[in-house]
Amino acid sequence: MSEHLRTALRLAASGIPPLPLRAGKLPFGNCRSCADNACGGRPNMKTPGPCTCASLCHGWAAATLDPQVINSPTWARAWWEAAAVAYHPGGAGLTVVDLDNADALAWARETLPATRTVTTTRGEHWIYRGTMASSNAVRPGVDIKSLMQYARWLGPGVGATAALPDAVRALAVKEPSPARRAPQTLTMPLRGKSGECRHRAPAYLDRGIAMAEQRITEATSAVHATVYRTFLAVLSTHGQCGCLTDAHVARLFTAAQTKGESPRHCTDAWTNARTALGM
User: Fold this and answer.
1) What are 94-112's pLDDT values in tens digits?
2) Which among 119, 128, 130, 118 has a CA at the least distance from the CA of 96?
3) Nearest one of 114, 104, 204 to 165, comparing CA atoms
């Protein structure tokens, strides 16, 4: 029995659906019957498990908790040839925030709640309890892997697994198209709601605003989308209490206008972000 197969069986026993990866961190290709998805794939492609051909088909959807499938003759060769073991985070009820560089790590440490972390070759995986739609490049060096996606298994990591925060969910939310924007009634930035303050210290909010300004300032493309996502992230983290003042929001508007956004675009993005979060 290969070490990869042993790892896979341990993962399945703990409720984490595994699959083998070949060189290049890629899943094994479809069998002849499933080539070009001729078999129709799995229904809706939303649940882990192999195709009815019982082979390693359809990428992340091949991940399974069934030890008989994992240890079957059709999978045996793949485990010997595998370069790594992967798993389907969504199938385990998890979301992985993949941080690929030092800037992404610094952003996560300032913005996201502490959780279980796993060291990778270029950064860290931050693992949260809960699922969401997967999305790549939600910000420089940051990918989200959860439903309909796989992640490399690099060990159990350290720390307690926290609940998936709104700040991560907000990263994958796309701005509504102009035709569906909320009615524009704002002429000035709005304060946050009254509620329990979750800030560890006043400096936490100031650092968050400074990092948001920096994210907007450093945008080299898709400025409008970056502004919207930044507003969404700030509101999801800091918008539920009275600490977020007009002065803080004005700083964000100024940064956006310096990048070429009009005051109307800033107000539109702020309104849509509040609407998306139900504020």
Assistant:
1) 999 999 999 999 999 998 9
2) 128
3) 114
